[in-house]
Amino acid sequence: MESILQQKVLLLLPILFPIVSGAILLFLKSMDDRKKRQWYVAVVVIANAVFVLTAIYLGSKEAFVLYEFSEKLSLKFYIDGLSMVFGTMVSILWVITTFYAFEYMKHEGRERQFFSFFIMTFGVVIGIAFSKNMLTLYLFYEFLTLTTLPLVMHGDDGKARHCGRIYLIYMMGGASLAFIGLVFIGIYGTSLDFIMGGILDTALAQKDKTMLHVVYLLAFFGFGVKAAILPFYHWLPTASVAPTPVTALLHAVAVVKAGVFAIVRLTYYNFGTEFLQGTWVQNVILAAAALTIVFGSTAALRTPHIKRRYGYSTISNLSYILFGIALMTPSGLEAGLLHMIYHAVLKITLFFCAGAILYQNHREYEYEIEGFGTKMPIVFFSMAVVSIGMAAIPPFAGFHSKWALATAAVATGNNFAYIGIGALILSALLTTLYLFALVIRAYFPRKRQYPKGYDDAVADPNKLMTVPLLVLSGISIIIGVYPKPFMEIFDVIAQGML
């Protein structure tokens, strides 16, 4: 009995501890002292990362029912292979982001409020990762919108409030579509649990196959709002108004990846690929992913604002992952998960670079960073390294995932998958152009007269911001050179054995 209680505590602690700790911080006026607050936040975030990793790698593999509403409806938690991947990625990147945010947020104001919701969001995302059924995931999915909204609106000016309204409208609209999926899964499923292969009652589902395909499509685009799929992408570049630590988490780790994670659960663990593969609905989502890939890359190339350019790049790269999911094969899911990890590391680094430039020099546009490469060596070294990875130049990280996506697409024999391969190739070219344009401007400035004092104060920020950049750059190189461990784990997950 004591052992069972310990296992339940181990599973719930990484979810509840940061939510409670963040709520406490919101009301502790003594934490207006920066040093005290930073110690508090650092201890909570690091401790929770340890709790998450302990639960994942040392905890029980038994499901835990927190509360049962009815025979089908319950709040249930469990750690499977997908939970392990998502939870580990979130925990490591959250710790790194925390130290970067300590320096960046000094000039943003209302730091106690910021870090309160920042911590709470950590717990909510882990709740999504550890959800055993669609009801639990949906509940935390809604909470994620509520805890990130104050972060998006942190500027508390007219622009921030406008962006917050857009963010809320898109998120709530998407959740409403996703709720339709939840209802129908409850009616046509044998349960709401996540089981690889799906949980639909075969006899019932075959009777109303067309209707359920429409329901799946609605739920896909509902969860796809957080993954910024066309036409529901507008909130993401708009959210660039938020402080850079928030933008980095929204665009690389928390919100967008929660959308991707939910779509994996919906496709492989609720409806099941056998019910969807080879149907018109698969072709629709393959086409939507391919279109979004090209659109995001094209928009990024046309956008001179650095953070917004990276935002449009995120739109494109999220649909790389969705494309892998939409292939509905083990190799497609494996490739999609690999790109999810690679993109998280690479894109959060790029946003940190953009934030460092803005923090140090108040420069936000491509044409404002000419000649900065040698004056901000760590920032632009990191930008160059991860840009090579994003451009899929071997043997760096992005190459392996994009190669895996293309080969998985070829193996399906689906014409829409072949269109997707064309989108991947075109996007790779555009990615190279819009990322290297920044690096080239920084290291090879045009020969023209600059205003006096143009780059007098240009320099790298302090270690709280540069160390995370170097750590992430190092991680991006390592995971690019050694992709095999990830491929092996993702293969086991895609086969339903973890």
Q: Count helical runs.
A: 20
Q: Let me know the number of strands.
A: 2
User: What's the rounded overall pLDDT mean?
Assistant: 91
Poorly predicted spans: none
Order of helices and strands: HHEEHHHHHHHHHHHHHHHHHH
Characterize the largest beta sheet: strand count, sense, and whether it forms a barrel: 2 strands, antiparallel
Q: Considering DSSP H and I runs of 4 or more, what fraction of the residues is helical? A: over 70%
Morphology call: globular
User: What would you call the structural class?
Assistant: mainly alpha
Q: From the alpha carbons, calculate the radius of gyration and give it in angstroms.
A: 22 Å
> N-to-C terminal Cα separation, in Å?
26 Å
What percent of residues are in strands? under 5%
Output the strand order for the largest sheet.
Answer: 1-2
What order do the helices and strands come in, and which of them pair?
Blueprint: H1 2-27, H2 34-58, E1 64-68, E2 74-77, H3 81-104, H4 111-129, H5 134-152, H6 158-188, H7 202-207, H8 209-224, H9 235-238, H10 244-252, H11 255-271, H12 273-276, H13 280-302, H14 306-326, H15 330-361, H16 377-390, H17 397-412, H18 415-443, H19 463-481, H20 484-494
Antiparallel strand pairs: 1-2
Helix pairs in contact: 1-2, 1-4, 2-3, 2-4, 3-4, 3-10, 3-15, 3-19, 4-5, 5-6, 5-11, 6-8, 8-11, 10-15, 11-14, 13-14, 13-18, 14-15, 14-18, 15-16, 15-17, 15-19, 15-20, 16-18, 16-19, 17-18, 17-19
Write structural notes for this entry.
By secondary structure, the chain is mainly alpha-helical. The protein contains 20 helices and 2 strands. Strands 1-2 form a two-stranded antiparallel ribbon. A hairpin with a 5-residue loop joins β1 and β2. α15 packs antiparallel against α19. The two termini are 26 Å apart. The mean pLDDT is 91.
